[in-house]
Specification:
By secondary structure, this protein is an alpha+beta fold. It is built from four helices and 14 strands.
Amino acid sequence: MNTQDKIAAMTEGGAILSKILTEALSHTTAGMTTATIEQRIAHEMDAAGAQPSFKTVNHYPYYSCVGLNTEVVHSLPNPKKVIKKGDLVKIDTGLIWQGWHTDMSWTAQIDQNGKTVFDTDFLIAGKLALKEAICQCRLGNHIGDISQAIENRIVSFGYQVVKQLTGHCIGKKLHEKPYIPGYLSQEINQTPELTTGMTLAIEIIYSQGNGRIVIENDGWTISTQDAKMSALFEQTVAITNDSPLILTPIPAGF
């Protein structure tokens, strides 16, 4: 399959994924469990005729990861985990369409009415970092340009990037190289150059604390070491000869 066909397939898959995720976010309320969110995502993905990306990784058993508050990533949906007012809810999911993966995640807070909101300072920091990182996804730039944009924005709000976790390239497999750190650890021109046809899962993973993490006893869920709140934003993007192409668009208001 050539690059044009690849991008066309991932655009279709990304549109399906975005619809599934935004509907899950829209229906998330206080009183439901994280397993209920997983069930909705699984139903909608099956109905669309797509396959779950996450089940291709190390025998992961679910279609999504749904984390609360101090949980950072890889949180197992749980029928005993009830969402409460004030909680931060992180939904991460991916699908396979015509053999190609797309990946997406978003964070919401549950307000005092039990509904999802997306406009707190903490969440705005992550959304701005994602937007600015995607602006760096241009032909001739480097992975380091993306990393620097993420780090600069998150730190400007007084938060910390979770340095042990990264974004990644994506395509026939969910996780492909090169990986995309949320901070700059070397000279930009020493990091991989962005070329036409590359598809990237840009991830903003950050916390209100020191950014260090621990793995919980379930062997999957990763939480902040200092029990501080964390958030997660991710979109899949293609490098083109022109502007960055967002393959998993998010509606206004999210």
